[in-house]
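haha ok so turns out i had the wrong file open the whole time. this is the CORRECT one, sorry everyone. sequence first:
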Amino acid sequence: MHKSGFVNIIGNPNVGKSTLMNALVGERLSIITSKAQTTRHRIMGIVNGSDYQIVYSDTPGILSPRYRMQEAMMKFVGTALVDADVIVYVTDVVEQADKHADYIERLNSLTVPVVVVVNKIDLTTPEKLEVLVEQWHEMAPRALIIPASAIEKFNLDALFGKLLALLPEGEAYYDKDTFTDKSLRFFASEIIREKIFLSYSKEIPYCTEVAIEEFKEEEKIYRISAVIYVARESQKGIIIGHQGKMLKKVGMQARKDMEDFFEKKVFLQTFVKVNPDWRDSDRKLREFGYIQE
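then structure:
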């Protein structure tokens, strides 16, 4: 008997969705910061066993869209609700249980199995956790409620066992040596974007996007040229920093992470360009992968 299917992970920002995804896959596929909206795309991570293939899918955090970009992000979430074999809704012990009640209502209407993971249980007490789990039983009576800690890797084995049991029988969707649906270019851009989220404050990370203009694979080195797009000229100055120090710092940190991820030497060049309308331009959003034909 071979099991195969899509386990799609959704939830609100800052509940540890991406940390959970990475822990389940065993690879650092989704970038992680403490800021909301870090994940902007739907990223798949594929785990193979002798008699199963699980295709995990991390999606952007649920939000009310203000730009075309955010509308496209929420379409990734909508697609994940439609094509899943199992839905994992991630919450945690901090957020209010009824936040985004409309999505909980959608979960209750689904015909596929739903698992609610109450994450970050290392931050609460057993008594408070028991009350929270009971609240989730009342709000999502069809769902399986599993407390866990992604960062501490607590109860993930039990979660994996439940997910595997819920998957349908079927043949693998991907080759056994495939671990993601994304390209090396995509991960290069995501690593740079993560460093921007970690290095700048206020609105700067939310107004930036990274495009890989050149990715040359040589025998001993990857030569990468990246453009960081911002919405205003003043943001360009902040990204570059005094005498270029901030941009240099981001580039150095990103290059180191790329070398660890790609297991190969990297030569990285970074440039900054201003495009005031990139978050609302269908052409740019298509170029950045938010709109797919």
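The chain has a mean pLDDT of 90.
again sry for the mixup
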